[in-house]
Amino acid sequence: MSRILVIDDEKAIRFSLKDIIEYENHTVEEAPDGIVGLSMIENEDYDLVFCDIKMPKMDGIEVLDKALKIKDVKFCMISGHGTIATAVECLKKGAVDYIEKPIDLNRLLKVLNDNLSPNITEKSKEKSDKPKENIHKPHNVKQPSNMIGQSNAMKQMYSFIEKVGVTDARILISGANGTGKELVARALHNISLRAKNNFIEVNCAAIPSELIESELFGHEKGAFTSAIKQRKGNFELADNGTLFLDEIGDMSLSAQAKVLRALQENKITRVGGEKDIQVNVRVIAATNKNLKEEIEKGRFREDLYHRLSVIVIKVPELKERLDDIPLLVDYFLENYSSQMHIPKPKINKQAIKKLQSMSWTGNVRELKNVTERLAILCEGEITEKDIEKYS
């Protein structure tokens, strides 16, 4: 079992990395800044150090410089503001690798595999085989019960869900419309320690900007004209559970500022109120927008982006998982026949091949609509000609 140190001034990053790395059966210690981290390196031995670059008191490059003068220790640098020049500088100074924020789970696991010895002592192995008290091991999450698909793209995503779902890491789910981002959020919640508590979904694009703050944080009686009684917001309703902020890219800048405070301080204030309310919420966000472009255009806060995107999961588009179309169509036909209390419609192989050859700009949502349309309008077995006619 390897011993790892995580140095980062963001508590959420430290805790998330700790949970994920411990899931891989390593021991993790953490430091809130470079000075504390350097002191720990001086007094203890670590097999690998993950160190943020931009930190108060002492930046990561200075920690790297000073640590390597004290002893031979492996450093992997982390940065949310990195450039190729920064990465090259870190490697020249002796770092073994460099990871950008938001952290790519595959990159993180590769760094662990590349830099830690695969051999562990029998004593360590016995220790690693014991269940961890602070980690909830999922049972069978190779394919979450609410998701359909066995393509390579989906299996990779299931692996991501399994590794980060059991942690409290904040996750940003990216993907085009109709890919199933909400299903991913629910799968993450269902295998977490918060699974028995509320999963609250907020569609940020569907709520008018003047009402989003009341929706998220609640309001006091008399806070505005129609506030005839006190109302709890979604942060309070999701306490000890999960809050899913769908289409986060459409949230107003003023609401973004308040969400940022809630994430930083774990407390909110109702609209029209003065009392701080402590909340314990895991936030999962989703967007179909490129938030880095939105940041450049001044429409999204960069600090909020880094708070939300400890881990990013990209949901594959349907064109990346064409092998799943037969499974999806079968599921939609089965579901439709059950709802309508009719025999399940049949579809031939040529029709399936035709569906696999089509361009699905609306992704799984569009395929579902087409499948139900075929089930309604076709008599007997669904054929290739039916698809040409009704799709």
List keywords for this structure.
391 residues; alpha/beta; Rossmann fold; Helicase, Ruva Protein, domain 3; five-stranded parallel beta sheet; 17 helices; 14 strands; 44% helix; globular
Mind sketching the topology for me?
Layout: E1 3-7, H1 11-23, E2 27-31, H2 34-43, E3 48-52, H3 60-70, E4 75-79, H4 84-92, E5 97-100, H5 105-115, H6 122-129, H7 152-165, E6 171-174, H8 181-190, E7 199-203, H9 209-217, E8 218-219, E9 231-232, H10 234-237, E10 242-246, H11 253-265, E11 267-269, E12 276-278, E13 282-287, H12 291-296, H13 302-308, E14 311-314, H14 325-340, H15 349-357, H16 363-377, H17 384-390
Parallel strand pairs: 1-2, 1-3, 3-4, 4-5, 6-13, 6-14, 7-10, 10-13
Antiparallel strand pairs: 8-9, 11-12
Helix pairs in contact: 2-3, 7-8, 14-16, 15-17
